[in-house]
Amino acid sequence: MTLAKRARTLAFSAAVALTALSLHAGAQEVSEEHLKAARSAIDAINATDPFDGFLPEAAAALKAQLIQQSPNMVELINDTVDQKALELASRRADLENEAAAAYARIFSQEDLQNIATFYNSPTGKKLLQDGPIVTREVMQAAEIWRRGVVRDLSNSVVETLQAAAGIQAPSAAEPGTAEGGAAESAPAGN
Predict the structure, then answer these.
(1) Which of left, alpha, beta for 173 (phi over 0: left; psi -120 to 50: alpha)?
(2) What three-state secondary structure class fits 186?
(3) Using CA atoms, how far apart are residues 74 and 80, in angstroms rounded to an integer?
(4) Cβ count within 10 A of residue 40
(5) In sequence order, what DSSP letters do the residues of 130-161 get, joined into one string?
(6) Which residues contact 1 (CB under 8 A, 6 or more apart)?
(7) Do residues 118 and 124 lie in contact, with contact meaning Cβ atoms separated by under 8 Å?
(8) Angle at CA 45, nearest 5°, toward 39 and 46?
(9) Which of 25, 103, 122, 175 is the most interior residue, by most CB within 10 Å?
(10) In a structure prediction context, what are the per-residue pLDDT tens digits for the chain, which is 190 residues long?
(11) Which residues are CB-contacts of 160 (< 8 A; sequence separation ≥ 6)?
């Protein structure tokens, strides 16, 4: 496939994806004030920040792909991809509009205003900044707790089943020790 065909295919794929998003967005109309509240909430919670690197990453990947196919055109490829990426940068606003519409469909205008107020406060900003750290620590604590519950459940069930079956539960000593029996008669040095 030639360089031009690959570029057209990529452009067509992007256009189809954006068209699909646009059709979905028009399904439910909301007021301009509601959308304004949604944009404010999105800004406050940094909802679209994870997508900031998408266009530069896509441009870098496209450069690498095209340069691998046509290594003699490095400078032209780099210049062209950079130029076209800059032309597309203004479409970042499309994502903001889609995100605002999504939030406006789910949350009332008052909810969105409350979200923005909270996340713009010092406490809300701290939650955004330190929330991932707390979440990681909670996940670690939950994993330790989960393992303890599984262990205790298993031990409790085994003991109950052994008692019900009339089997004596094993002692805490390991088999082969003085309490367990066989280790005393084992010759030293083996």
Answers:
(1) beta
(2) coil
(3) 10
(4) 19
(5) HHHHHHHHHHHHHHHHHHHHHHHHHHHHHHHH
(6) 9
(7) yes
(8) 80
(9) 103
(10) 455 455 455 444 544 454 445 444 445 588 999 999 999 999 999 999 999 999 999 999 999 999 999 999 999 999 999 999 999 999 999 999 999 999 999 999 999 999 999 999 999 999 999 999 999 999 999 999 999 999 999 999 999 999 888 876 555 554 454 544 444 444 444 4
(11) none
Q: Collapse the DSSP code of 53 into the 3-class scheme (helix H, G, I; strand E, B; otherwise coil) and give the result.
A: coil
Q: Rounded to an integer, what is the distance from CA 131 to the centroid of its chain?
A: 14
DSSP string, 4-45: HHHHHHHHHHHHHHHHHHHHHHTTS---HHHHHHHHHHHHHH
Task: Confirm if 43 and 62 have CB atoms less than 8 A apart.
Answer: no
CA atoms within 13 A on the CB side of 126: 3
Structure-token match 């008052």, residue found: 110
Give the span between the Cα atoms of 33 and 36, in whole angstroms: 5
